[in-house]
Amino acid sequence: MGFLSNLAGKAPGAAAPLAPVPRPIGVIPHFTQHSTQIALQVREQKMSMSGDDFSVKDAVTGNTMFKVDGSYFSMRDKKNITDASGNPLFTVKKKLIAIHSTYVGTSPKTDDVIFTVKSSFSLGTKLTATFKNVAGDGQETELVLRGDLLDRSAEITTKDGIPVARIARSFVNAGELLFDKQTYVLTVAPGVDAALLLAICICLDEKANEK
Q1: What global pTM score does this model have?
Q2: Taxonomically, which superkingdom (predicted)?
């Protein structure tokens, strides 16, 4: 049993399910323990003076899985991601002195850097996340996001090109779930850290707000 509910099979025309990775990938082993792909409904963040907090939900069941501090880097220098019970997972900060937009995820307890996400010049959007694969082989690991920053359409792969996640405006499964324009769906492959992938999406949101 994983920490999230299993998803039902796919409907005709849906994208092929993401295959399990050979070994767990991530920084928090607990969030790699799902045996099927999972889908998270994420609210697109817009620049707002209110900066309200919001919940990230299982796209199928509607259960809250994570919570995100809704403040913006332009208003405050950090953003907090917690689990459903409010236990801190990451503090995400933007590095102010960097050639390309760079974000770091730090431990809320020690402030040690857990992962780094950097943007780079590309046709479309490209973000590269680097981290020590604590959940797997313990080696330095890269995940690369490529896609459309504004449409929230992207694929996240390993350095070798193995797909580990998708981002889209809709998620089609047995229920053919479609979401409004203010949300998008992050689908995560079995064995991949959903919390880390959510943090990469938050960095994508912040990058979009720079525009």
Answers
A1: 0.85
A2: Eukaryota
